[in-house]
Amino acid sequence: MARRILAAGNWKMNKTPSETKALIAEMRKTCASDSVDVLLCVPAIDIPAAVEAAAGSNIQIGAENMYFEENGAYTGEISPAMLVDAGAKYVILGHSERRDYFGETSEDVNKKMKKAFEHNLIPVMCCGESLTQREQGITMDWIRQQVKVGFQDLTADQAKTAIIAYEPIWAIGTGKTATSDQAEEVCKGIRDLIRELYGAEVAEEIRILYGGSVKPANAAELFAKEDIDGGLVGGASLKPDFGDIVNYSK
User: Fold this and answer.
1) DSSP H/E element including 37
2) Under 8 Å between Cβ of 11 and 46
3) Which end of the chain is more exposed for a tag (fewer CB within 10 A), N or C?
């Protein structure tokens, strides 16, 4: 069975609950699709409003982060049970902004991956290299390490359910985009690693997204690549015309 394309939005720290309702009301029309899966990962405070606004549509709702403990004295953190109760089905883990600004390690991401699966949340695990790392020629070494540690001790069934998002840090929010060939090269390398770790069946089922200045103008070229199964989209997912990415084939 062919992997379905996933157009996933990462809203980051944008939109209030009332703004969320208004935007998703428009997106219900623009993002309608029978062939592409649509996911919006929104700030935690917006999840209930997003779930309500998206009810009955093809838009699924996820979170942007979570903690790896069930509960306790972790001021400001959000547990997986809280996300599930609010209606989230997915959660982004290990985004470069979490790693860079808040000091998250791949070991932290691995703890979160395991905890997400305990609560039946589908993780979207991010990986990616800096411009310096690319120029040093260590892109795949770095990304293989991130994926290996992030997926440590996950079962094959968990691994094939997870989603990996390759986001070159130098292309996030900069307007720069990896060429479709550059993106495909790394996504293929990630799939080859999953094949090494879990075998051919898991490698063929797992979805690998590209993220980094994805927009309507380049979505079709990126998504046509054999090992790119959609996009993790930042700024362009904050507008109704995110639907132009969802419906890239039209």
Assistant:
1) strand 37-42
2) yes
3) N
Structure tokens at 11: 């809203």
Tokens of 37: 């899966």
* Catalytic residue status for 119: no
Please tell me the distance from the alpha carbon of residue 164 to that of residue 147, in angstroms, as a whole number.
8
Q: Which of 97, 104, 129, 167 is catalytic?
A: 167
**DSSP string of 141-172, one letter each residue:** HHHHHHHHHHTTT--HHHHHHSEEEE--GGGS
Catalytic residue, from 64, 95, 97, 129: name it: 95
Is 62 exposed, middle or buried (CB count within 10 Å of its CB: 0-12, 13-18, 19+)?
Answer: buried
Task: Give the pLDDT confidence of 9-56 residue by residue, as tens digits.
Answer: 999 999 999 999 999 999 999 999 999 999 999 999 999 999 999 999
If you write DSSP's letter for every residue of 125-144 in order, what string do you get?
Answer: EEE---HHHHHTT-HHHHHH
The single residue listed with the structure tokens 């440590």 is 152
Segment 94-108, tens digit of pLDDT: 999 999 999 999 999
**Residues 187, 167: Cα–Cα separation, whole Å:** 10
**Rounded Cα gap, residues 182 and 86, in angstroms:** 38
Q: Which residues contact 217 (CB under 8 A, 6 or more apart)?
A: none
DSSP string, 52-120: HHHTTSSEEEEES---SSSSSS-TT---HHHHHHHT--EEEES-HHHHHHH---HHHHHHHHHHHHHTT
